[in-house]
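re the bet — no i am not wrong, look at it urself. input seq straight from the record:
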Amino acid sequence: SLEGKRAQPRSRPPFPAVKGAWGRPTLLNNVETLATVPAIINMGGAEYAKLGTEKSPGTRLLTVSGNVKRPGVYEVELGATFRHVIMDLAGGPPDGRKVRVFWPGGSSAPVLPESMLDTTTDMEALAAAKSMGGSGGVIVMDDSHCVVRAAYRLLQFYAHESCGKCTPCRVGGDWAVRMYERILGNDGSQVELDNLRRVSDALQNGRCLCGLGDSAGWVIDSTFRHFYSEYEDHALRHECKVGPHPPGSAARTGSPSPQGGEG
């Protein structure tokens, strides 16, 4: 799109450092990486490296949104716990609610349950928890929300944002949305759960040229891993433990949006 063309991923190689924008070598850097340069120069590399952990030195800017009292951007040393970030810095959920789940790196990062709040923010700990730091957008959802409906909303987003170039993403995202609609519309069964697992597997592990397909697959995979019983409640028993919702009401439940915050 920077070149005025349709926004679609390219096959690699060649990588952007060899052939990028307008066919020229292109250096890609996250703006947060560049923002650390003044601190490193002022403190000196050795002093800056004392921040964080041995394998993940430095600090990270985390944008906390969703069901918290003090949403905002917080700079923390890598190695701080998400409990500290969400409960201490951002104040935790309002109205006496409890954290139900959190996305440690935006909606593209696999979700983690409340029981894993003591996971630390460094890359190694997040990888061990089968998630990632991603964009640094920490999205918090409290216990008044349904995980299955939140996953449905995220899949709607990913299906809509697909550029259509890769078949797994183009077709799989749409199929996933249809399965969720059946499950949430009290028309689900074990068939829909099995199909969602197949779609999730088909979207992951580099089967698409960009990360959108993997991210969509991780929504299903991570919510299945931590909350499969809730999927069974909806698909097999046609009930929601969080509370009654009419079919198709996912968009009005206030579940955190992919961009952060509440919808």
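see?? The chain has a mean pLDDT of 90. told u. also The CA atoms of residues 228 and 251 lie 21 Å apart. so pay up
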